[in-house]
Amino acid sequence: MSFPFNDVAWSAAAKFLSQHYRTGEKVLAPDLFWRIVPAIYRYRDTFGRSTRDYDWVVLHKGQLSELDPVFLRSLVRSAAPVFANEVFVIFSTLRRQEFAVVSDSNHFQSLTAMVAALGSAAPQSQALPNSGEREIIRNFATMTDAELREAMDEFWRAGGYLYETLRDQTYFSEIDYFLRDFVGNVEGREVLDLCCGDGWQLRNFSGAKRVIGIDISDCAIEIARQISVGAHFSFYQMDAHRLAFDDACFDIVIFNDSIEHVRDAGQVVREAARVLRPGGLLYVTIANRNSLHQVMTRKLGYPEFKTNHHHIREFDMDETRELLARAGFAIERHGGIFLFAYWGIPGIDHLVRDLIDNDPEIVELHRALGRAVGADHAYCSVVLARKLMAGSRIR
Question: Is residue 317 part of a domain?
Answer without folding.
Answer: yes
